[in-house]
Amino acid sequence: MNESEKEIFMESLIDNDGWTVLHHACLKGNKDMCLYLIGEYPRLLSKKDRREQHCLHLVAESGNVECFQSIADLALKDMNESEKEIFMESLLDNDGWTVLHQACLKGNKDICLYLIGEYPRLLSKKDRREQHCLHLVAESGNVECFQSIADLALKDMNESEKEIFMESLLDNDGLTVLHRPCLKGNKDICLYLIGEYPRLLSKKDRREQHCLHLVAESGNVECFQSIADLALKDMNESEKEIFMESLLDNDGWTVLHHACLKGNKDICLYLIGEYPRLLYKKDRREQHCLHLVAISGNVECFQSIADLALKDMNETEKEIFMESLLDNNGWTVLHHACLKGNKDMCLYLIGEYPRLLSKKDRREQHCLHLVAESGNVECFQSIADLALKDMNEIRKRNIHGESNRQ
Question: Is the Cα torsion angle 389, 331, 333, 263 positive or negative in sign?
Fold first, then answer.
């Protein structure tokens, strides 16, 4: 190949994400390889992937400051200072992320501070979801990195102004910087944020989700306990339970509903142990927490919670209770599991509560309608075998009964 053909070939080497060989090298922050590739095939430097990520986004993610500087020097060659900053601000991927957003998500303090020092206007940029870089550092869990960037963002503000600024950092979902790490269950940064900006603890997002809803979803019991201790401070036992029952999002979900959807047994059992009345709460669609555990597919979690809900009932009462758990669509726990096509959960439920197999919802949908919708052939076959076997048994009994009458 001649030189032109070589470059064309190298540019055409694109994986399913639209990454060139330079993108791959940049993600690892390998300076020598990156500079070699740019030297040999200079047009690679301007290529973006399918998400509109420039190679500088990936170097920022790698955290290698020296590699970023070297590649930026080549990309910004012949530009004045103003043009350099404009160029760096214009490097936005499909999510509206700058190179600083990318670096912040990894919580790499060195490259974050370098980028803010070189291109200070990046610090105020938000992405398409209105996420500030501090949202992403909070999600990363790196307390030291958050402190360093927050110090720059809050420079020249008094204490009151700092708290107001931090409360005003809301993305399109109304999530604060505290909501983000709560969803990850990162205790250290959650406690740091509450300590520095205590009013964040009472903030709810656009769906009326409190940070405790999200910690419950994360499954981290220790993180939940720590934040709950702060939220429930100075309350007696009765007030604590009332407060926890009153934490309802727009769907009427309690913290237990959120934990159950993820099928995290430890936090589910912790919540029921601490706030037992949560076990009987239903959401606005009349969904019991067992509906959501069934969706999660975690059989062990379902068994553990069902044991508590069915305590002191005999076998008949247990089956009647489980049949009576109907949401607004008339869905049983089996309907919910079937829609997810989770074979293990479906077979467990049918084994424990066989009459669920014949139940139809308000639209006359059998659980097989929903398994078919899930697309799981193996699950459909398994449940169909049981349903058809059941019908065959009924037919035999009917024939036998007719014979006896004759």
Answer: positive
Supply φ then ψ for residue 64, to 5 degrees: -85, 105
Tokens of 172: 């399109």
- Helix intervals (H) in 127-252: 133-140, 143-153, 159-168, 179-184, 187-196, 211-218, 221-231, 237-246
Q: What pLDDT is recorded for position 391?
A: 58
DSSP 198: G
User: The pTM is what?
Assistant: 0.88
Largest CA distance in the chain: 102
Give span(s): CATH 1.25.40.20, the chain.
1-128
Q: How far apart are CA 305 and CA 187, in angstroms?
A: 26
Q: d(Cα 249, Cα 255) in Å, to the nearest integer?
A: 9
260 closest CA partner among 222, 285, 295: 295
Q: List CB contacts of 196: < 8 A, sequence separation 6 or more.
A: 166
**According to the model, what pLDDT value does residue 10 have?**
80
How does pLDDT run across 313-359, given as a tens digit for each residue?
999 999 999 999 999 999 999 999 999 999 999 999 999 999 999 99
Phi-psi region of 18 (alpha: psi -120 to 50; beta: other; left: phi over 0): left
Q: Which of 292, 301, 289, 297 is nearest to 345 (CA)?
A: 297
- CATH number of the domain located at residue range(s) 1-128 in this protein: 1.25.40.20
* Nearest by Cα to 255 from 290, 202, 219, 217: 217
pLDDT in tens, 136-187: 999 999 999 999 999 999 999 999 999 999 999 999 999 999 999 999 999 9
Residues 6 or more apart in contact with residue 375 via CB below 8 angstroms: 341
H/E stretch holding 388: helix 377-405
Q: What is the pLDDT of residue 362?
A: 95
d(CA 296, CA 244): 23
Sign of the C-alpha dihedral computed for residues 291, 295, 296 and 302 taken in this order: positive
Q: Are 251 and 282 in contact (CB under 8 A)?
A: no
Written as six digits, the tokens of 397 are 């009994």
Question: Taking the CA of residue 170 as centre, how many other CA atoms within 13 Å lie in the half-sphere pointing to its CB?
Answer: 12
Count H helices and E strands in the chain, helices first: 25, 0
How many Å apart are CA 305 and CA 293, to the nearest integer? 9
